[in-house]
User: Fold these one by one.
Assistant:
Number 1:
Amino acid sequence: MAKGSPTKKAEGPEYIRIVFDLPRHYDWSTGSYLGKVYAEAKENKKMVAPRCPKCKKLWARPPSPVCPKCKVDMGWDWVELPLTGTIFQYTYQVYPLWDPHEGERWSNPHPPAIILLDNGIYFRHLLEETDTKKLKEGMRVQAVWEEDYEKRGKGFQDILYFRTIEE
Ligand SMILES: [Zn+2]
């Protein structure tokens, strides 16, 4: 036996420590269709969607190279979506609101809503107005874009929220 007694192995599981260097920056390809949506939002502050050559339906979310209904190639016929619409439905949020996945407090106070855009497409986004006493279905709203070019690059999320408008 060597001099000294061997080190007694610790009881219980052994742990290793892993340190993640966050945030991690990475690039990923959006593909041509989703890339078109991201580019139009970032460069031109426009919402676009491809139109099916057969059924003429617009597929905004997600933009698809194949029509989910007709199963035909969508081609490259893009339509600009209107930035105004009518509140079809909204959700009242009660605080504190916790993210069920992350367990962290939700920081965005803007009510999620379904907005009927002026071309007849239902579009899910946020409302600027947080006072539920002022919110009503049927109210007219308009998209408000992130004005800082460097902060854009999130596709439809480059729209911060929809603002109530008087017409
Ligand atoms: Zn179609």
Note: Strands lie at 47-50, 78-81, 84-90, 112-117, 122-126, 140-145, 159-164.
Number 2:
Amino acid sequence: MDAYDGLAPNYDAWAGYMEDDIPFYVSLAHEAAPGPVVELAVGTGRVTVAIAAETGRTVVGVDMSAGMLEVARAKARAAGVEALVDLRLGDMRALGTGSLALDAPASLIVCPFRSLLHLRGWEEKAELFRAVAATLAPGGRFAWNAFVFDPHAAASADGYASRHGDLWEYVEHAPADNRIDLTVYAGAPGVEPRTVQLWWATRSEFEGLARGAGLEIEAVYGWFDRSPYDDRSTEMVFIASKPA
Ligand SMILES: C[S@@+](CC[C@H](N)C(=O)[O-])C[C@H]1O[C@@H](n2cnc3c(N)ncnc32)[C@H](O)[C@@H]1O
């Protein structure tokens, strides 16, 4: 079973601390030219349902966890935007092919909440950037965010558990693999702990990945309010675009 399948019922409670990203991604959808809007690693539809509800645009949401997509489908129905949300099961690196083919080149592709870090190392991320560049329309944008890796924070969190509402999160740091493992457990009888793995990347690695795929870096922000990225930033928020 995919780790996120087991996390799906508890995901929104776990991710609830992250809210500032939603208006940012919605604003990009408002700004986007006509054409498909895509969310990669759509999860439970936290961002996609808001984009559909607030812009009236159709959003294609891709995820490899059937359990997460099931929650997203229910949320879209509850928000009255089921007809605007096109959820597809698959690996985001296959965007543009097979069941993840689009009717037209995309005007906006987003990948919120650090989901690119689930792709192992440079090679898997590079595959994704190539698929995004091939799928975007000229002038189309790709936006994503990732945490800024802090070796002191990683070392001090290593081996510690913290509580997020009803959920516990246990962190393990594997520096030789650029990896952080998060084990999330609900503490309820019969609920198995689930571990997800994140391969962190730096600003220059992300910029290299985008440029290597033929995209231009439009902006790197330090938060979703579009404040500048600097030494105090804890998040990298990128917008890249395909040359017109
Ligand atoms: C942190 S959640 C983010 C969900 C959602 N984007 C949000 O902002 O709440 C990460 C999601 O990435 C999905 N995922 C991980 N690797 C993937 C891949 N290679 N292709 C598609 N989805 C993937 C997981 O199933 C999970 O739903």
Note: The first strand starts at residue 37 and ends at 40.
